Amino acid sequence: MIALFFRDLKLSVRAGGGAMIGVLFFMTVVAVIPFGVGPDLNLLARIGPAILWIGALLASLLGLDRLFQAEREDGSLDLLLMQETPLVLTVFVKCAAHWAATGLPLVVASPFLGLFMNMNELAIGATMLTLLAGAPAITFIGAVGAAVAVALPRGGLLVSILVLPLAIPVLIFGVSATYAAVEDPAPFLPPFMILLAITLFFAVIGPVAAAAALKHSAD
Amino acid sequence: MMSHAAYVIASYAVAAVTVAALVAWVVGDGRARQRELRALEAAGIRRRSAEAPSGEGK
Amino acid sequence: MSENSLAIRKFSDLANPTRFLALADRILPWLAALAALFFAAGLWLSFTTEGDYQQGETVRIMYVHVPSAWLSMMCYTVMAISALGTLVWRHPLADVSAKSAAPIGASFTFLALVTGSFWGKPMWGTWWVWDARLTSVFVLFLMYLGLIALNRAMEDPARSARVSAVLILVGFVNIPIIKFSVEWWNTLHQPASVMRLDGPTIDPEFLRPLLVMAVAFTLLFFTLHIAAMRNEIWRRRVTSLRRQAARHAGRETLAP
Amino acid sequence: MRLLAEGLSARRGEDLIFNDISFSLAAGEALVVTGPNGSGKSTLLRVLAGLLRAESGRLSIENGPSGFAHPHELSHYLGHRNAMKRELTVEENLSFWQRFLGDSPGGSGIDLSAAAEAVGLAGIAQLPFGYLSAGQQRRMAMAKLLVAYRPIWLLDEPTAALDVSADRLFAGLVAAHLDHGGIVIAATHQPLGIAQPKTLQMKGFTH
């Protein structure tokens, strides 16, 4: 299992891997926003956390469709499916590797982009923390979509369409926890706890559902 | 006068770290490539001629 | 036409990769030593000269900020010339040059952005504003990263060379925008004070360390660039040797 | 150990691909599955590998190691695709599969360099897998069978991209596996060069 984790990590860093593209996409999306809404620093500071969250959400969906499709194309998926190790565990490890290669760099890049958004230190810290807590949930939800769409020839876009509605609760609680940290009266902990709960919930449900979908996708 | 010293020091520190990382990358990359070339040479794989390199450009 | 192509052949002959390697081996130690020397002088000057009465100590940030900003543009210009070399003259080293310059350019652009931000915080009270100069430099940074990603995404250097050369040339429109943004738009960022037609407007007290540092950074860039080009040539040799090894493997062991 | 299949049938969509296939293989025996295109050779192998569910019939192991319910847990499956990553080196690929697959009880895989040598490609394990020619890639995929031990080999057109000498080399590998008490089931057009295999002629199912 550790071998699988490191192989996936290596693959995403090697030539053509998705690790760098995700961060780049994140930066580009966030950089485009000020052109659209105008360089009003107060406005940017207010919408900053939301922008960062949406950017991170889109960026982490970017490479997800390849999670199982690449394995299927070269036949590795057959061998992964055949083993007596529970498939749920295999899927979980693949998700963890994907998160470490794509999600973690987004979290690291977010404070820099927070500065561009003229957010204050507290807001940046809160955004980083909520991203750290919420991004794994997106990966786990995405794994289900990726597993469902694995046999489809043009599954990429479909995965995003399938996954985005499911990821909306993550977005809601991530953003509201961030705003709660910045604006005084609202308490930070309740939405943050719900966010953590969502992540844990999907960490269990996601691999199970994805494994079930993969089992039936084989032909 | 020294109120902004922290910013100055931070700037120079960032510059030093970036430059050091660049130099380390270039030197390390060069060493690794040379090691690979030597390993290939040791395995008896040689370029067909020294004057007409086979791989680059054309 | 034939005369022309003969001249080109001579030109590219002079710069064939093997010769380039020999030349680089000879030049690099000198270039590195010279860069180190200028850095020592520049650093000494930048910490011994007086602070500005308006900006205080922060003026010292200028001595790293301005040279890196200048390099971020020069590096892109070098890449654009290399891209022309790839597309027009099909020079064998041009694409090596463009490819190895990208990470260096990205680093200096990053440096310019970060030091600028450290300068902006005490002076303007904010880390970042979306004004024309800053935004265009940030776009330049994203372009560098995009080019690196493109180079990494393609396995075959011969094919990726053309594609990235086209992209580099298209992106070159950003360079004049960066250069003249401070004059075309009225922004927070101060206008050019060194490179002006009517001579520099900057006090010689600051000009001296700035120029020395600029020379030091430029020398550093060329040192790194030549070394990175050498690495890239080596890398391609390793690749071609490995392909050669793969072609031959299994034949001799299986031959009866 | 004994691999038993009784009355297997498989369906793809609405069509029945094959019906009532039965065989029994003891340790050291090979089964060569032949038949025209579309007769269900690959489907049969995928059913044996547990990748497709059989419509009816059952698969079982007698006298095998305990704790293995289905034969696919004791099987190697070499499909049409090599299950190797182009971006990683041969060595990284093989060592990943060695560590991920692990050994089945009753044997152990050989180390990577020995496996590369066994397929006649010693010395290029450092290369990215994508650099190799189609035949070399196929041979490295076979090295995968050696680095982790599995008593049952399921081979789908194993020699499709190979030249004559590599063909012979592969026949040697299969023979060695059988000598050690392994079981081989191969779908193929060409003779595998194994002494006295059982054969199964797939006819395809006609309505």
Structure keywords:
heterotetramer; B: 58 residues; mainly alpha; 1 helix; 66% helix; 0% strand; disordered C terminus; D: 207 residues; alpha/beta; Rossmann fold; 5-stranded parallel beta sheet; 3-stranded antiparallel beta sheet; 5 helices; 8 strands
Mean pLDDT over the residues of chain B = 76
So what's the oligomer here? Answer: heterotetramer
Order of helices and strands of chain B: H
Distance between the first and last residues' Cα of chain B: 59 Å
SS class of chain C: mainly alpha
Give the fraction of residues assigned to helices of chain B: 55-70%
Give me the count of strands of chain C.
0
Cα distance spanning the termini of chain C: 53 Å
Computed Rg of chain C: 22 Å
The number of helical runs of chain B is 1
SS class of chain B: mainly alpha
Number of helices of chain C: 9
| Beta-strand residue percentage of chain C | under 5%
Quantity of strands of chain B, as a count = 0
Radius of gyration of chain B: 21 Å
Write the layout of secondary structure elements.
The complex is a heterotetramer of chains A (219), B (58), C (256) and D (207).
Chain A: H1 2-13, H2 19-37, H3 41-62, H4 66-73, H5 76-82, H6 87-116, H7 121-148, H8 155-182, H9 189-217
Helix pairs in contact in A: 1-6, 2-3, 2-6, 3-6, 3-7, 3-8, 6-7, 6-9, 7-8, 7-9, 8-9
Chain C: H1 2-14, H2 17-48, H3 62-89, H4 94-124, H5 132-153, H6 157-171, H7 174-184, H8 204-248, H9 251-254
Helix pairs in contact in C: 2-8, 3-4, 3-6, 3-8, 4-5, 4-6, 4-8, 5-6, 5-7
Chain D: E1 2-12, E2 15-26, E3 30-34, H1 41-48, E4 56-62, E5 75-78, H2 90-101, H3 112-118, H4 134-147, E6 152-156, H5 164-179, E7 183-187, E8 198-201
Parallel strand pairs in D: 3-7, 3-8, 5-6, 6-7
Antiparallel strand pairs in D: 1-2, 1-4
Helix pairs in contact in D: 2-4, 3-4
Compose a concise summary of this entry.
Chain C has 256 residues and is an all-alpha fold. Chain C is 79% helix and 0% strand.
Structure notes:
The complex is a heterotetramer of chains A (219), B (58), C (256) and D (207). Chain A has nine helices and no strands. Chain A is mainly alpha-helical and 219 residues long. Chain A has one domain (2-217). The radius of gyration of chain A is 18 Å and the shape is globular. The two termini of chain A are 25 Å apart. Chain B has one helix at 5-42. Chain C is an all-alpha fold. Chain C has one domain. The interface between B and C is large, with 38 and 49 residues.
